[in-house]
Amino acid sequence: MESSIIMGTSTRTLEVQEKQLWWGSNATAKRFQRERKTLLNNHVFFTKHHQQRVKPCMAFKPAFAQPRAPIAPSYGDPMLANYVPVYVMLPLGVISNDNVLQDREGLKNKLRMLHAAGVDGVMVDVWWGIVEAKGPRQYDWSAYRALFQLVQECRLKLQCIMSFHQCGGNVGDSVVIPLPYWIHQIGDSNPDIFYTSRSGYRHKECLSLAVDNMPLFNGRTAIQIYGDYMRSFRMNMEDFLKSELIIDIEVGLGPAGELRYPSYSESMGWEFPGIGEFQCYDKYLQADFKEFSARQNHPEWSLPNNAGGYNDTPESTEFFRENGGTFGTDEGKHFLAWYSTKLLIHGDQVMDQANQVFLGCKVKLAAKVAGIHWWYNTQSHAAELTAGYYNLYGRDGYRPIAKMLSRHNAILNFTCLEMRNREQISEARCAPQELVKQVLSGAWKENIEVAGENALPRYDCDAYNQILLNSRPNGINRNGPTLRLYGVTYLRLCDELLQRSNFDIFKTFVRKMHADVGYCPNPEQYSHYTVPVQRSDTNVPVRAFLERTKAEAPYNWSEETDMSVHVSGLLGYLLAIILSIFKRGSK
Length: 587
Known about the structure:
The active site is at residues 258, 453. InterPro entries: GH, Glyco_hydro_14, Glyco_hydro_14_CS, Glyco_hydro_14B_pln. Keywords: Carbohydrate metabolism, Glycosidase, Hydrolase, Membrane, Polysaccharide degradation, Transmembrane, Transmembrane helix. By secondary structure, the chain is an alpha/beta fold. It is built from 18 helices and 12 strands. Helix 10 packs parallel to helix 12. The longest helix has 28 residues, at 330-357. Residues 1-66 and 582-587 have low confidence and may be disordered.
């Protein structure tokens, strides 16, 4: 006879293992009585099949069953203070280019599987190129309303990305969703609305920050376009906002939704680990730099012409080489300060617009920062510099961003949480672990919440364990960890994730993120209090952001997570639960 089991979800049945324990010694039986209560608290339940007699040597064989809602933990459980919610990114093309929700029933089944696995919610790109495709201010939210209703029916929370960028051309992009056609029409007559490399390539995946305040779009500026779009979103999704289905609004600030320049793009021939190219050669940014240089009494200084190409290495360029590179000269510092500050101001302006739009809504605003880990272990940090992160030994390029986000009480969302140094190719001088420590520590020192994502799809225990470590760098504690991520979004929902072996490991990962207490439907029980959005602090000038560039040592990280994913099969699951009991008692 087979045991019936929902593999890896918060509700399970034990059959063979229970019989083996019952048929053991009296001491074993008594120990089982104690552990049974604990297992029930951890959402392991026992079926009526246990009344039937089975042979103790019978092999365990799992079988899928209809997904069930996970059982919530006791709200008095102190381990809830260690709970980190898990969200899953929906497929890029869940809404088609012609604004139709794709495969509703198939998606519904997948969402129910996520909920049964204890997942807290999902994240979705709300594509500008789909919603405002028909013309300026002609918004069609019908497909997204259908999607949001489905997510609500499946009892999941929702994170929404205001995606003001094109889908296609970046790592992992499986579909192409361009910017609205009328934007491209304007770009045909004025290509300088797009980021431009020194070689003249136009990056049409998002608008250049140079046009943020220029009324080039039928009388509107780019900032006004973003604001109008978000305002229409709020008006048309008011019921979902009031019901608190939508918990986060992540504001797109550049390519792939990240606050950066499009310095590395596969559509331009970039390949890892190329250093990328500076993107400031449109006529507007060229004029801005010329004016800036004149104000600094250096009208003779110009934009770099010695920084190499997309796939160069730092040492192959005059600008980034370690000995005598331009990046360390006064002229190089002058340019890099201007280049990075323009990005910071852009982020601040768009976030301020979002703050005004969602004023009074019970949501959290967020912004995403890219995890550019290659060439981190070099003097110049070349790939970071071309992306706009002025990060060097002795100079922190990320804490000013955190300070800017603190003005808007926004979450900093960072990537590459799953990566370890030893997994990277040595010649790329990668250091994702040090990068994560630096960025997260700087944000926490600015007293803002930090969330994270994996950069690439991974289904192995090593990747999940690294995410767990970065989620609670000092481990679990009955009084709550000293450091804890606000949430983690897993990239992404797909058939490969839902393959049986992959999904079993993923469900164990979710349980470990929840500190083995099971799914909790009430965020306030794990200290996530969402208050109505208040107006951004208007007394924080840009110079206050730049005062945060002094490098400081990051917080200490444990070597390994204390809630690791390493189990295999039901017996391993039982062992992991027992081990977690001892961990609780020792904290």
